[in-house]
Each structure stands twice: as structure tokens, then as C-alpha cells.
Design brief:
The structure is a single chain. By secondary structure, the protein is mostly helical. It has one domain (3-315). The protein is built from 16 helices and no strands. The longest helix is centred in the middle third of the chain and has 37 residues, at 178-214. It is globular and about 60 Å long. The two termini are 39 Å apart.
């Protein structure tokens, strides 16, 4: 193929992807900025101290309100651990938070539709919750490193500003009027969110455009489609493991594979295992939580994700 045709096809696909996704991306930025500006993250995160199912359930659903990407969840999870949250609660939040982020949800829904997005969201949060329960069992039996002593009392209402970094900008603005916070502070939040996730979305767009132009859809359907419920899931695992993208980039990549013929379970694997095997995330767990925690987190998250991906292919 001549280089000119190559470039024309590639950038045409890239432009089409941008046209399809820019509205979802903008809407996700606006909603995420609103949440970051008006919802107290520290008030939500102070309930993660226990190892019981209720604490794990709160950790699982917190991402719906915290609205951070997989990269943003890393420092928050580390801070939770330093504050005295249980190992299981902090790692449950780390796995679940990217899926609760509205930017992530809106991006993937632009590719696979609202119904399929809801299916993946439910299974992803269920995966995080079950992984949390397993890690809690390990922690209670001292099979993995346990949490460090708390710096604050459980249920304490007044928390130091330094406890959660993501909260600092909101605290600076909380005494301002609502109008100023919407029209002046919110754009700053949007820019901060874009700086955190924008590069990964751009990388995801470039990869997705290459897939759209150069990977035959019948090849994707043959190896990653629903003809075989289990094999495509296993093939997708090593592909996901080598991808170093944030959750938003994985959403774009997984969505493009779906449009090329990949099964819904494969999309689930790309995004769930892609986040769980992220090198930055695993490095943080190894350093802040311990070697046993890192191994247990990786094995349990990957195993449960494979099981649920197979179930998604069979049922849907």
C-alpha cells in the first residue's frame, strides 16, 4: 500500500473516531468535574476502615462518586492504606474505581451501547467486590500483609487536608459561591482531569484507528468473537496484560475491537485485566502493600475476570 493511501486511511479513521467520541468525552469531563467540585471525597472514603462486607461494598461503589481513572485511583488507594483502611478495602477500591468513573462509562457506551455498558459495569463491580471478599479472608488469616495502624479514628468526621490529594482543589473552592464554582472552578477541574487521562485516551484513539484500518474484521471475529465462548477470553488475557493504558484508553481499544467483531466478554477482559495488570498499579501495590498483596491481587482479579468474561459470552 502506498504511503499516501496509508496515511489518508489512517487519519480518516482517526477523525471518524474523534467525531464519534468527542461528545461522550466532553460530557464525561463535565460530570466528573461536577462530582470532583461538589462531592466530598474524604467524607466518602472515611468509611473504608473495616474488612466486613459492608466496607467492601462501599469501597466497590465509591468510584461512582469519586470519579477517577485507573491512574487517579492509585494515589487514592495508597492514601486509604496509609490512613488505616484495610488492605482488602483499599485494593477493592483500586479495582472498582475506574469502572465507576462516568468518563469511562460514557466512552465505552459510545462503542458498545448503553445495555452492554450496563452489563459490563455490573460484572466489573461484582468482580471487584468478590476479589475484595477473597482478599479480606486472606488478610484475616494473615496470608497477605495487613493494614498499618490508623492515623485517625474510624468514623472521625474531621479529617486532615493532606489525607486525600484529590480533595485539595475542592477544599480551596468550597467557600466560593455556586456560580463561581461552576463557571470558574469547574473548568480548572476539567483541565486537571484531562491532564490526568487525556494522554491515555489519545493513545487509545491512535491504537483504535490502527485496528480499524489494518485489522480485518473477519480475523477479529474468528479469534475473538462469540463462536467459541472460552477461547477468545483466553486469547484476550495476554493481549490485555501487555497494554499499558489507563482505563479510558482501554475503553476505546476494547470498544473498537467490539465493533470489529470481538465478543462482549473479550471487551470485559481487555478493560478489567488491562487495569489489574497495569505495571504502575502493580508497582504501587508491591511498594505500599507488599509482595503477597500484589500476587494475591493479580491472581484473584485475573481469575475472577476470566470466569465472568466466559459467563458474559455464554449468557449474552
Amino acid at each position: 500500500m502506498p504511503l499516501e493511501i496509508f496515511l489518508i486511511n489512517y487519519f480518516s479513521a482517526l477523525l471518524n473516531l474523534f467525531k464519534e467520541l468527542w461528545l461522550f468525552f466532553l460530557l464525561g469531563l463535565i460530570i466528573s468535574a461536577l462530582i470532583q467540585e461538589f462531592v466530598s471525597t474524604k467524607r466518602l472514603l472515611q468509611y473504608f476502615g473495616g474488612n466486613d462486607w459492608a466496607s467492601l461494598l462501599r469501597a466497590t461503589t465509591a468510584g461512582l462518586f469519586v470519579s477517577v481513572c485507573s491512574c487517579g485511583a492509585i494515589p487514592v488507594s495508597a492514601t486509604l492504606r496509609e490512613r488505616g483502611a484495610s488492605t482488602a478495602s483499599a485494593l477493592t477500591f483500586l479495582l472498582a474505581a475506574p469502572w465507576g468513573g462516568l468518563l469511562h462509562v460514557l466512552l465505552i457506551s459510545g462503542f458498545i451501547g448503553v445495555r452492554n455498558t450496563a452489563i459490563l459495569l455490573i460484572f466489573s463491580l461484582l468482580t471487584a467486590f468478590i476479589v475484595g471478599l477473597i482478599l479480606a479472608k486472606f488478610e484475616n488469616k494473615n496470608l497477605i500483609e495487613t493494614s498499618i495502624p490508623k492515623k485517625h479514628k474510624k468514623g472521625e468526621k474531621r479529617l486532615c487536608v493532606e489525607c486525600v490529594d484529590v480533595e485539595q482543589m475542592r477544599l480551596k473552592h468550597e467557600n466560593e459561591g455556586v456560580g463561581k464554582r461552576i463557571f470558574y472552578c469547574m473548568p480548572k477541574n476539567m483541565w486537571q482531569i484531562f491532564k490526568n487521562v487525556g494522554k491515555y485516551i489519545i493513545i487509545g484513539l491512535f491504537i483504535a484507528a490502527a485496528l480499524k484500518v489494518f485489522v480485518p474484521s473477519d480475523l477479529v471475529t474468528k479469534y475473538l468473537g462469540n463462536g467459541n465462548n472460552y477461547l477468545p477470553v483466553l486469547i484476550a488475557v495476554p493481549i490485555s496484560a501487555v497494554l499499558e493504558l489507563a482505563s479510558e484508553g482501554l475503553a476505546i481499544l476494547g470498544g473498537q475491537l467490539y465493533q470489529l467483531g470481538a465478543s462482549l466478554g473479550v471487551v470485559f477482559i481487555i478493560m478489567m485485566v488491562g487495569v489489574a495488570t497495569d505495571f504502575t498499579e502493580l508497582s504501587m501495590i508491591l511498594g505500599k502493600f507488599g509482595k503477597k498483596c500484589a500476587i494475591a491481587y493479580l491472581l484473584t482479579a485475573t481469575s475472577i475476570a476470566i470466569l465472568f468474561a466466559w459467563m458474559i459470552n455464554v449468557i449474552f
